[in-house]
Amino acid sequence: MTPWWLRVAVVWLVSRAVTTGILLWFAARQGDNAWTRAHPDYLSFAQLWDGTWYHIVADSGYPSVLPMTADGHVAENAWAFMPAYPFLVRGLMVATGLPWELLSVFVSLVFSLGAALVFYRMLRMVLHGETALFAVVLFCVGPLSPILQVSYAESMHVFLLAVALYLLMRRSYVLLVPVIAVMALTRPSGLAFALALGLHVIHRLVSKRRDPFPVWERILAVGVAVFSGLMGLLWPFVAWMVTGSMTAYTDTELAWRVPYLGYRELVPFTPWVQGAEFWMPGLLGIVVVVVVVVAFFSFLFTPWARRLGVTLRLWIASYGIYLLAVFFPQSSTFRLLLPMFPLAGALAQPRSRWYRVLLVALLIAGQWVWCYYCWWVDGYDWTPP
């Protein structure tokens, strides 16, 4: 019998070949742009957009003085990009003498394979092996899967998140601490995971009659939830200490919204209302946001989602709440949905061959659509990934 890890590795390898082909197709047609010359090779094409910012962090670290625009507002700068991924690549550069372009993509590929392996093991706790493997297929060929093999931190973050969710499902609270510590400094996730842990504690307290929740486990779980919350606040605190500005991190993040909204303060749970007003002025935008939010949270109560178990659904809900609280909806939002990858386990459950073939085909087509609108630079692009 073929080992589970080999089956997952084959799925990953085939999916990477497909995605690499799509990226190379776009690279061959890429014109001159702010990041590359025309028709770049793969490694150069993988450096677009935020990949350049991560390279800056790896080479130069973070500014102690925030750059300002002509009208006195904080400009886009490296503080928006957390240190774990670029510092890891930097360490490998020092150790091996190899360039950023090669190592940054290599690290992303290795973490994407690790994420696929852990994802399978995680889903095997709640789903049959064949369904779990097809969920890995969906994860590997999803529309956002090109981001798993470019110079972005997403692969590293998804791997760490998969490990964290696996440990939470196993209730290995102590082992969560180092994973959360690194994860929260890879992509913004500490606050969302703290919420998920808090809801996990509440659920265990409510169901303690049929599922004992000893006092020592309660203490550990609450302690890890608090730790995750503190880690979620650590990077803004570091930015404050280094720059002297209490709002250095949030001001930096808000700089990317200026083309859409101008300069506005961050007020929790208002960005999606602002997005509705920007994209679809009037009542229609608000109605669409409400419908999307209701449909999303309603889906978590469907039979397909319920089979994922309480822990995974609590994470998906918590991360959804986090996105509603702080992120402005635009083209990057699709990438920000990647941490909801456990939903692939719900989509994988129907066993119809036609359903599965069609779904895989649609997802691969979605990669092409995402690359066209969000990765490839067409000369007047305003839809960054």
UniProtKB/TrEMBL annotation:
<dbReference type="GO" id="GO:0004376">
    <property type="term" value="F:GPI mannosyltransferase activity"/>
</dbReference>
<feature type="transmembrane region" description="Helical">
    <location>
        <begin position="219"/>
        <end position="242"/>
    </location>
</feature>
<feature type="transmembrane region" description="Helical">
    <location>
        <begin position="173"/>
        <end position="199"/>
    </location>
</feature>
<dbReference type="GO" id="GO:0006506">
    <property type="term" value="P:GPI anchor biosynthetic process"/>
</dbReference>
<keyword id="KW-0328">Glycosyltransferase</keyword>
<feature type="transmembrane region" description="Helical">
    <location>
        <begin position="102"/>
        <end position="120"/>
    </location>
</feature>
<dbReference type="Pfam" id="PF04188">
    <property type="entry name" value="Mannosyl_trans2"/>
</dbReference>
<feature type="transmembrane region" description="Helical">
    <location>
        <begin position="354"/>
        <end position="375"/>
    </location>
</feature>
<comment type="pathway">
    <text>Glycolipid biosynthesis; glycosylphosphatidylinositol-anchor biosynthesis.</text>
</comment>
<feature type="transmembrane region" description="Helical">
    <location>
        <begin position="314"/>
        <end position="334"/>
    </location>
</feature>
<protein>
    <recommendedName>
        <fullName>Mannosyltransferase (PIG-V)</fullName>
    </recommendedName>
</protein>
<keyword id="KW-0256">Endoplasmic reticulum</keyword>
<dbReference type="GO" id="GO:0000009">
    <property type="term" value="F:alpha-1,6-mannosyltransferase activity"/>
</dbReference>
<dbReference type="GO" id="GO:0031501">
    <property type="term" value="C:mannosyltransferase complex"/>
</dbReference>
<feature type="transmembrane region" description="Helical">
    <location>
        <begin position="278"/>
        <end position="302"/>
    </location>
</feature>
<keyword id="KW-1133">Transmembrane helix</keyword>
<keyword id="KW-0337">GPI-anchor biosynthesis</keyword>
<dbReference type="InterPro" id="IPR007315">
    <property type="entry name" value="PIG-V/Gpi18"/>
</dbReference>
<dbReference type="GO" id="GO:0016020">
    <property type="term" value="C:membrane"/>
</dbReference>
<keyword id="KW-0472">Membrane</keyword>
<feature type="transmembrane region" description="Helical">
    <location>
        <begin position="132"/>
        <end position="153"/>
    </location>
</feature>
<keyword id="KW-0812">Transmembrane</keyword>
<keyword id="KW-0808">Transferase</keyword>
<feature type="transmembrane region" description="Helical">
    <location>
        <begin position="6"/>
        <end position="27"/>
    </location>
</feature>
